[in-house]
Amino acid sequence: MAEAAVSYVAERLIDLFQRKIVFLKNVQQGVEGVRNELIRMKCFLKDADMKQEEDEAATIHNWVSEIRAVAYHAEDVIEIFIHQVESQQRQSLFIKCAFYPKKLYCLYKVGKEIESIQTRILEISNSRERYGIRNIQGLGEDDGSSTTREKMCELRRSSPLIANKDVVGLEKHVNSVVSILLKEDKSLRVASIVGMGGIGKTTLAKEVYNKTQIRNKFETRAWLYVSQDYRPMKIIKELILQVANPEEDKVKIVDTMDKLSQAGLEEMLQRRLEDTCYLIVLDDIWTTEAWNLIVRSFPDNDTSSRLLLTSRRKEVALHADALIRPYKLEVLNEQESWELFLKKAFPKDRECPQDLVDVGKDILEKCDGLPLAINVIGGLLAGKKQRSEWQRVQRNLSSYLVKSQTYGVSTILALSYQDLPPHLKSCFLYLGLFQKGKDINVKQLVHIWIAHGLIHQNEEQKLEDIVEDYLDELIGRNMLQVILLRADGRVKSCRLHDLLRDFCIMKAKEEIFLEIDNPSISFSESRHHVLYCPLERYEYLGNSKSYVRSLLSFDSSSTLVNLDCICTSSFKLLKVLYIDSPGLEVISDSIGKLFSLKYFGIGRKTRIKTLPRSISHLQNLETIDMPMSRYYSVLVSNVLWKLENLRHLFGYINSPRLLKIDRLNNLQTLGSIPVHHWMNNENLARMTNLQKVGLLIEKDDNLDMDRLCHSLAELEILQSLCLEVVDSLYISLVAGLSKLSHVVKLKLKGHLAPIPAHPCVFPSNLCQLTLVNSKLHPNSIQVLEKLTNLSVLKLVNAFPRNHEQADIITISENGFPGLKFLRVDQLMCMKEMKLGKGAMAGLKCLQIFKCYTLKRLPEELVSLTNLEKLEVREMPKAFIDKLQVSYLHTLQHIPNILIGHPSTDYEDPEELERRTKIGSLKQRAIKASAKFRHTQKRRRANVNTD
Q: One GO BP annotation here (predicted)?
């Protein structure tokens, strides 16, 4: 899909040109020419992409690859030129004068390069006529009649008459959708089934369509397969034929329809439906435009008629009927997957020979619960009885599932990718950089997308907001799975289905030259993105003529003693460097050579404790991302103030000398620093972009809380504040906090002094409050419940463990009027929770974690009619048993109830880090002990030999 690559580069050239016009003015005409020709080329790439799937694929593929390569080469040339000029601009006047001839030479050289690139693009453009490549802006009624996509649509065309005998795990879903369709409402309503490609949306719709209750309820039923290449008139004609009476002359109906316009056909269909209770299924609908064209033919005749649509896009479902929640179909669980696999692989006896079970389970794990993949692999293995045959499939599983097949899993998944606009295609391809089977941290994803220039800012929105829109669209298209939500409803982590990830990597290798742990990397192209490769491969990369853009290393077994081997000319355009490798303890000073670096991340598994002074040379650096844990504070020299473009500084930062931070005018996030560094900066008010601040208060700080609050109040757009105290210190809630009117999120970690009886000490617009290890008096809840704007409250080990009044937590009548989210976590003495009348009336989510003494849920939960989610994790078995048996009447109104063990996302990061450190120390002690015993044993053996 070269359209994505060329669109990306064209946008990047515009961006570079607008930001660096001072440097590029001498080659302005050439740069504009390259950009304009690339934009023109986009018009032909859609046709070229479709022809790649046909007979002339090889030659077309070469043509597309040439465009992509020359486009990337243009970006490389201009970026390197800008770096050379910027480097000279930072020098003294004497050096500038001395190097002026070199500047003129650089200008001459880049001008010639751009001239050559422009000539090459024109040659490639002119050659398209030899391949019969046309300008396609969109498919019309008669366009693309012989394309692979159309053939695919014909093969995928659904019909409710074709029964699926091998259905697993659908009964509960069928009943849910049937109940939605039969809900009492005389108006025309639209139910929808959404989910990723291959998950079984059509199969579920068929089961519903043929259900006895549905056949009895609806006098008229029809089934339409829409697809991406829908044609409204053809669809309406097919519908009219389906709803016609059996005794009618179909030939006469067709003759009549052929004489009508689209408006006439719509009127004809409406007349046939106006006096009947009808159900029409619209299978595989992709766009809101398609929906708008089709739906106007259906009359709302007050007969409780229904439409049922299936789509990969949540946006379409919500557009069709915003009042009915789309029914989301999820992947099969392990048991359901195995059952479906047995039906396909062993259709007769449905039993797997014992010697094949382990191989079968391993193969099935790769399918990751996707019914389409299980059907394909199960059918492939049917009739194969030898273990060697199964192992051959096991070894080459990706080629069976993802690599080019005529109409296999790859083609189904490709439909979703092809439907993406170019900017989302680029974003999707970069998802291949993340580890397989691991949740994707959205914060990290956001900054990696931004670092690579994938997000183009507009005047109305800031970059981070645009990124969230992109992310929401990929989720809405069911190309990303949401794993965890934040309390405010934003996505915290997500995951790419394993098969979609394989498809993503396959495409990324073509488009952005992604390589993942590949011992035979070839560098014939101009750039590469590397997820991980061993140390010796870094050295090879360094000697290549390619430009590596991303380097992410996870769980490396190699010991990365220093980074000298990657700080070479081939890495001068490196944008992203993230290392989570246990072998890395020291970052060398050579990192300062990576002048293009925008995102630098360190994972929890590394043992890096110091950032070198040379980090100050990274003038383009926008994000430093380190673990947010006090047990992992990183020593930093007083050089951060030189990073003029730094926008986000995550992690606990320490320094032997006073850190100058008030010069970081672009800084938006300040993870956590000792408070004395903050208090000793005199010009904090000029940090006009600062939105999130974390401060650590230690014993020797002698903190004046009022003065601290006064300095924070000067930051007019500050939204989020975290204050943390160590050891036996207390956070004093003084009146100064109320001056922080812009703060909407407040996190207090450590012991709190007694809260005054009136909540006026809190910021007036406070919406989210988190209290960790607070040792509060239980009656403090009566103060917090008066915070009228509070929508999110998290209480983590907030009360003393042995307090005599902490066994019953009572929320007063009408307490917490605006609360939407409540988490109670590690309230070790709480035996009971009581709610007064009208308390937390708007609550939507309740989380109860590790409250081991809690005996029962509050009976008043039954009155919380807005409660949508109850999450109970790591609670005693007796409590869980009672929850599942005795509280059914209390919980039946809650649509989403989750019970189970907590994931690490719910754990306090510091507690997790502390336990990880203890575990690491234990492991090291065990290894040292084993090594000592082994040495002693060898010594004794040597003595005996002597």
A: defense response to other organism
